TrEMBL record:
This is Nucleoside diphosphate kinase. Belongs to the NDK family. Coiled coil: none annotated. The lineage of its organism: Eukaryota, Viridiplantae, Streptophyta, Embryophyta, Tracheophyta. It comes from the Eukaryota. Transmembrane segments: none annotated. The keyword Glycoprotein does not apply. Its EC number is 2.7.4.6. It comes from Jatropha curcas (Barbados nut).
Length: 140
């Protein structure tokens, strides 16, 4: 089985979407290995999104991700990384509402930035992101 990192971003938590998102998680066959609520500060958010540091939207992204607490979840299932990306839908929530109406981002996202959830984009990112929040976690 594979692990991936999901984050319910500040708009998702604030909008009380947690329960609905967790229902989708369970219905899609994931198990929740770990979860924690945390408030990112500028430094931690910038480290987490370091790959985007040169992008025009970086400062706005950091402001968004530090605007309130986030719920960080380690998900596990076979093919977890790709399957979670499918379940959350495309980055742009406006497009998601049209092309992937059953996706999580269609359900609770607002636009290209405020898209309510995160999912690791590769196995390597998943491992980096899981240890970023939880350190090395054991068991398979
Ligand atoms: P995530 O990494 O959060 O799962 P993603 O892989 O779909 O999302 P990335 O391209 O990695 O998207 O961008 C990371 C995050 O930065 C997006 O989820 C979104 O919140 C924000 N973002 C991406 N592109 C833009 C943009 N053009 N304008 C504003 N915000 C953006």
């Amino acid at each position: 089985e594979e692990k991936t990192l999901a984050i319910i971003k500040p708009d998702g938590l604030l909008g009380n979407y947690t329960e609905r998102i967790k229902n989708v998680i369970m219905d899609s066959g994931f198990s929740i290995l770990r979860e924690t609520i945390t408030q990112l500060d500028e430094e931690r958010a910038s480290t987490f999104y370091a790959e985007h540091s040169s992008k025009s939207f970086f400062s706005s992204l950091i402001k968004y991700m530090t605007s309130g607490p986030v719920l960080v979840i380690v998900l596990q299932k076979k093919n977890a990384v790709a399957d979670w990306r499918t379940v959350i839908g495309p980055t742009d929530a406006v497009k998601a509402k049209v092309t992937h109406p059953n996706s999580i981002r269609a359900m609770c996202g607002l636009d290209l930035e405020k898209n309510c959830v995160h999912g690791s984009d590769s196995l390597q990112s998943a491992q980096r992101e899981i240890s970023f929040f939880f350190g090395e976690i054991s068991s398979g």
